[in-house]
Design goal:
The complex is a heterodimer of chains A (about 325) and B (about 475). Chain A has about 325 residues and is an all-alpha fold. In chain A, about 80% of the residues lie in helices and about 0% in strands. The longest helix of chain A is centred in the middle third of the chain and has 32 residues, at about 190-220. In chain B, the strands form 5 sheets. Chain B has a two-stranded antiparallel sheet. The chains are: A mainly alpha (about 325), B mainly alpha (about 475).
Chain lengths: ~325, ~475
């Protein structure tokens, strides 16, 4: 049963990456959109795109935490004990990102909008970097199990963590750009379609390059994960490469109908690949999933909750996206 | 090792025992978050009352009110969502040993809370953004899940806290590790029904009086139009109906504590030694030698309230019945007792104020005309918040030194990370800034609502919807 809950955990992580991640990625594009005048239109598309959905997307993270600490309490305790600094930074970043995004919508003075916008955009980069660094720390076996803390600094300032952080930022920026092409098209704003399409192509190329460099980083710094990624998890790595390349071609040809799904496939298969490569470890190589698992009563409750969530949350989530995509939830100003 | 060198030099200088700082940080972030909770739980209900009135009775003021309230809610909900997220980080960051050992039980209610919070986040987005383009009644119904999930969500969170007070549903082996969990008993532990009810009703008390106090203040400043009146009446009525219920629920909960957490109860009532005919001491302190000094004792009342059936002969267990390291310290006892007095005091004042309002409504079908009523009502929100905060302190500090009652002490649960004092300072600074900004933003919004000449289409850089503009809701609903 611990396997089922571990799968559930990775479903939630993947969902957070492709939904919540894209909202952070949109913050990245907000950051680099330039001055108030030049960046006005891209920011409008960004506001419009993530405004109604970011809070719901954010809840995937809560799900990840709850499943982790309830299903695998020892793993959660070990992770929080060792990775105190990046987790704290991520938490502060989440506060800044969410609140300043909500605040920005309510103010009109350019100076205020710029300040809140900067806080929103900078924290949108900080959070995925920290998350990626945390993933890198876990994957490279720097989080020891058993109630003793690993190194508070080198556990997340190391080649694999830097790779994880950079890859996370690039991947969410890529996802967001692809989504934003779609949103701009929905708004019939051809200039913005082109604007984000060019950036999506650029981000896809950078993401691919980071991934290639990453292979060498992992080989040198995280041998266990490298070995598993090149054997057990190889199909997923290949799926990611194929999806990424295909979406790049579609984007370059300006035929992005399938680009969104392919981009999701590219990012999701990396996340799932990480999970498969780690298997059977929760914390390589000191804590196995089965060892970390909570008693049966708890695990079955989590599965019941997951079924309930599928029955209750999923229809609502789909409704939200359908309404949003049909432009029935127009972005609003303060009045 | 490279980072280790710096850390090795810096850390011994900065290494401070983390337990007190971890407690402070948890207390501070919770105290902040708990102010936003009532708004998340009860404001949607109030907005829906206005929304219903607006559609049903074709009341343009009420409809405008609902729309504006939903926009304030968008801000408070966002701040509540992110500060709530911080708590999920802090459970592990500050209390890793607690989570590592008890996560499998403590986490169970959160599995369901996640569902409710998710649903709430989805529907609040639909409700907030749906004003222009959804049909009126369809839009109204998208707000109803907010009321339900707000209540169920806070019940779930309180269930986890109640479990810390009444840890049931876990089977321990000889080493004290959890080997089996009965999720049903964890969620529906003995403390949960009354604690959850007390928090949910508190959300309506605080939400009602807090929102009402803003409009009372506005009315004092001469904004006595119908819009402000409707806003005040809806919000104040919610608070006024909730407060007597809250007194009854609170009374039952106090009796539950008397029966099940006698040491906490002894701290609440300032009872150093087991006795009958115990006075209810207003204010007063416990001294380090174990005697009570100062305060106004009301003879026998604590005993009578604890069990009216046996009256003054009711015996109340004293603090000295457990060893000193298994009960709150003298300072903690004094904090608990003072907060208890604050909670009861403000609660009683709110009850009296609501009684005044109720009597006027009964006889004249109108709110009290006196300016004094508005003056008091305009500070009722702060009083309600203070009462709630104080009540929460009673519950949390009264449980000390236990994090899981009689099973794990707080000091054994805390992180060994000696840098917590730094994060406490950073978090406190950030939250203070966040709190001030939130209030300024809400005030800013209300000013702009009043000054309708600034429409969002005319401002530069405003997110004016590029989508085709549907007619305003007010016009849509007019027959």
């Amino acid at each position: 049963m611990s396997t089922a809950v571990a799968v559930l955990l990775f479903v939630a992580i993947t969902a957070y990456a492709i939904f919540g991640g894209a909202d952070f990625g949109a913050g990245f594009w907000d950051l680099v959109a330039g001055g108030a005048e030049r960046g006005e239109r891209p920011r409008e598309v960004i506001d419009h795109s993530i405004g109604p959905v970011w809070e719901a997307n954010h809840v995937w993270l809560i799900f990840v935490f709850v499943v982790l600490w309830t299903g695998f309490p020892e793993a959660y305790a070990s992770i929080t004990l060792t990775l105190f600094v990046p987790l704290t930074l991520a938490a502060l970043g989440i506060v800044l990102r969410g609140s300043s995004f909500a605040f920005r919508k309510t103010v009109f003075r350019t100076r205020d909008r710029r300040n809140f916008g900067a806080a929103f955009a900078l924290s949108s980069v900080l959070v995925p970097y920290c998350m990626g660094a945390i993933a890198g720390a876990i994957a490279s076996g720097r989080v020891p199990a058993g109630g003793k803390a690993g190194d508070p600094w080198t556990s997340w300032v190391n080649p694999t963590s830097v790779l994880g952080g950079v890859l996370a930022v690039v991947a969410v920026a890529y996802l967001a750009a692809v989504y934003l092409v779609w949103d701009a098209r929905r708004l019939a704003d051809d200039e913005m379609v082109e604007y984000f399409r060019r950036r999506a192509v650029g981000a896809a190329i950078v993401a691919g390059a980071v991934a290639v460099v990453g292979i060498f980083v992992l080989r040198a710094d995280a041998r266990y994960i490298f070995d598993e990624l090149t054997t057990k998890a190889l199909p997923l790595v290949l799926v990611s490469a194929v999806c990424g390349t295909a979406s790049l071609i579609l984007l370059a040809r300006n035929a992005d109908r399938g680009a969104r799904l392919l981009a999701i496939g590219a990012v999701a298969s990396v996340v799932v690949g990480w999970g498969v490569a780690q298997w059977p470890y929760m914390l390589p190589k000191s804590l196995k999933v089965s060892q970390a698992a909570a008693p049966t009563g708890t695990l079955s409750t989590l599965l019941v909750a997951a079924v309930l969530a599928a029955l209750i949350v999923l229809p609502g989530f789909i409704l939200l996206y359908v309404l949003d995509q049909k432009s029935l939830l127009p972005a609003e100003g303060a009045d | 090792m490279s980072g280790g060198v710096v850390a090795g030099v810096v850390q011994p200088m900065l290494a401070v025992n983390p337990v007190g700082w971890a407690r402070s940080q948890m207390a501070f972030t919770l105290a902040f978050h708990i102010i936003l909770v009532p708004l998340g739980v009860s404001w949607a209900f109030m907005a829906l009352i206005a929304n219903y009135r607006g559609i049903r009775h074709n009341d343009a003021d009420a409809l405008r009110l609902a729309q504006r309230w939903s926009k304030y809610m968008a801000v408070t909900f966002a701040v509540g969502a992110v500060t709530g997220t911080v708590l999920t980080f802090e459970f592990g960051l500050l209390w890793p040993r607690f989570m590592g050992r008890w996560g499998e039980a403590f986490g169970v209610p959160f599995a369901f809370e996640g569902i409710f919070f998710f649903t709430e986040a989805i529907f609040i987005a639909i409700y907030i953004f749906g004003w222009r383009r959804l049909k009126p009644w369809a839009h109204f119904w998208t707000g109803v899940p907010l009321v339900v999930t707000g209540i169920l969500g806070s019940v779930s969170v309180v269930a986890a806290n109640a479990w810390m007070n009444s840890p049931q549903g876990v089977t321990l082996n000889s080493a004290g590790e959890v080997v089996d969990v009965d999720p049903w008993s964890v969620i529906f532990n003995d403390a949960m029904p009354l604690m959850a009810a007390h928090m949910v009703v508190a959300a309506y008390v605080v939400g009602g009086f807090l929102v009402a106090s803003v409009y009372a203040f506005a009315m004092l400043r001469g904004r006595r139009d119908r819009y402000h009146r409707v806003a005040f009446l809806i919000a104040f009525s919610v608070g006024a109906v909730a407060i007597p219920i809250q007194m009854l629920v609170g009374d039952s909960l106090a009796r539950w504590v008397y029966n099940n957490q006698p040491v906490k109860f002894a701290a609440i009532e300032l009872v150093p030694e087991t006795d009958s005919d115990v006075p209810e001491t207003l204010f007063g302190t416990l001294d380090s030698d174990g005697t009570v000094s100062g305060g106004i004792p009301i003879p026998g009342l604590a005993s009578i309230l604890s069990d009216p059936g046996t009256g003054t002969s009711t015996v109340i267990q004293g603090l000295d019945t457990v060893p000193a390291d298994e009960r709150p310290t003298t300072d903690e006892v004094n904090v608990v007792h003072l907060c208890w007095d604050i909670m009861i005091g403000f609660g009683t004042l709110l009850l009296l104020l609501s009684g005044w309002y109720g009597v006027c409504w009964l006889f004249r079908r109108d709110m009290p005309k006196s300016r004094w009523f508005l003056r008091i009502a305009s500070v009722a929100g702060v009083a309600a918040v203070l009462a709630m905060e104080a009540g929460w302190v009673v519950s949390e500090v009264g449980r000390q030194p236990w994090i899981v009652y009689n099973l794990m002490k707080v000091e054994d649960a805390a992180t060994g990370n000696t840098g917590v004092w730094i994060t406490f300072i950073v978090v406190a600074a950030l939250y203070i800034g966040l709190g001030i900004t939130t209030v300024l933003i809400l005030r800013n919004m209300s000013r702009r609502f009043r000054d309708r000449s600034v429409a969002d289409h005319e401002v530069p850089y405003g997110p004016s919807g590029p989508a085709p503009e549907a007619p305003r809701r007010e016009e849509v609903t007019a027959p």
